[in-house]
Design a protein that fits this description.
By secondary structure, the protein is of the alpha/beta class. It is built from 4 helices and 4 strands, in the order βαβαββαα. It has one domain: Rossmann fold. The radius of gyration is 12 Å and the shape is globular.
Length: 95
């Protein structure tokens, strides 16, 4: 099962809201993935693993993890675009 890390500055309230929206989308789409809340520091830990990151903060490209901007999900400006990116990247990982 794939793991999606929802990352914001503190890894608390903002990531909880976005995680809920991503979980709802996955359930509606019939997809399964583990959705976890995290901070940037969590991503830098060698013990932490994720297949995809949805983030409201800048993620260092050197981590080598695909990243989707979580701002459209947070602000509800274009959530369908962010969720489409999540689907596309999950499909690519599973290909």
């Amino acid at each position: 099962m794939r793991t999606i890390a929802i990352v914001c500055g503190a890894g608390v309230a903002t990531s909880a809201l976005i995680a809920s929206r991503v979980r709802d989308h996955l359930a509606e789409a019939g997809r399964s993935a583990r959705v976890v809340q995290a901070t940037v520091m969590d991503l830098l830990s060698p013990e932490f693993t994720a297949d995809l990151v949805v983030s409201t903060v800048e993620i260092p490209p050197a981590l080598g993890i695909p990243v989707v901007s979580g701002m459209p999900l947070l602000l509800q400006t274009a959530p369908e675009v962010a969720l489409s990116d999540v689907d596309r990247l999950l499909d690519a990982l599973d290909a």
